[in-house]
Amino acid sequence: IADDGGGYLWLSTHHGIQRIAKTELNACADGVKPTVAGQWYTREDGLPTLEYSGGLQAAGCQTTDGRLWFTSNKGLVSVDPASIRPNLTPPPVVVESLQVDGRTLGNPPGTAAALAPDHQRLEFHYTALSLTAPNKVKFKYRLKGLDRDWVEAGNKRSATYSQLPHADYQFQVIACNNDGVWNLVGAGYDFTVRPFYWQTWWCRLLAGVGLALVIGGAVLYETRRRLQRRIEALEQERAIERERTRIAQDIHDDIGASLTRITLLSQEYVAGTRAPDGAVAVLRQIALTASAVTQAFEEIVWAVAPRHDTLESLICYMAKFAQDFLGTALVRCRLDLPLKVPACALSADLRHNLFLAFKEALNNAVKHAGASEVSVSLTFESARFILAVKDNGRGLDHPLPGIRAASTGGSGQGLLNLERRLARLGGCCEFVTETGAGTTVRFHLPPLSVGVNLPDHRRPARRFFTPPPTPPPALYENRHR
Hints:
Structural class: alpha+beta
């Protein structure tokens, strides 16, 4: 390595003689430039050979007149650094042609080439003019729209790309001469890769419209299918309700009328003198049995008829039953019922089981508790249905497992039945009792569907019941809040 005193270092190598500026070395060392290029002198510059190295012996030196001398196996080479003038003319660059799958395309002035979307290989050919050292011209290129940085091509005069996506492109190429002077303007080649038909805006628009139509059709179909299923379910429900109505009417008209006739005839024979003395007791038993069966049929008709599938109908029926049942047993009946009842639909199973549980509670109060007064109250707490039956009888005195309070002295099967019926409805039965102070039975049901819009054929009609004429009115005390 020899310093010419002018800011350059001269290196004798196995590939010729190289001149490197110190400023370029410092810039590379400081990280400003990634590489060091310098100028190479080879046979094209007059050197007899490329190998200028003497093993362990220095292959070059500088004389007092400033000239540099390098030795080789083919003679002595002299360089005068002061006489070297750099080539400051940047080489003009031109893109010669574009080959698409082996077919050469031209680029008419002012227009951009349009390429088919199914191309496989693009090959650009370019060159630069430098008469001083043509083989030392170096190139950089990039495909604007695809490449971010310039690609170092060296002295290679072609660039290859394959299967470009649909877009507008510009191929750019720049070159430098043998002294590293760059033509930064370079040359360009504009072209466009046409889209496939499914990449066009009109195809995407049609696809979007088609997709929207498909989604809309699917939503419409699903909506209509659900609506059809809803209509079918409503029609089936209406058919079931019509059948329930027919059955209730048939039972009421046919069987109920026949039982009523049997009761009337039996009572007529008992009251008159037509029957022999021995047959009076039998006829009286027939009349009582017919009356009980008639009452049972009335309950069945009420449970089956769909027009009673409302909470208000249930409350009215239980109130009437309590008045009739307790009045017959000469037990005072106290009703504490709300004047406003939420409009909600109840299933026939819920009405039937709750009424039977209520009936069992009244029967226990009359038959086992020996009560003289029974209070029936109804409250709503957070849409929960709470029905309470309270008597002033003798109370319960023996605990029953599974029930919150005590049972009567009997087997307790009736209380267990109450618990099971309420459990089937998703509720529970609570007993509060004290010996000699009466018993309170509370039926807790889960939240009801309060506030629903009932169909017209199931809207409850307000009905008022009056106490029966017997026993005397003094046995009844009705209190509403």
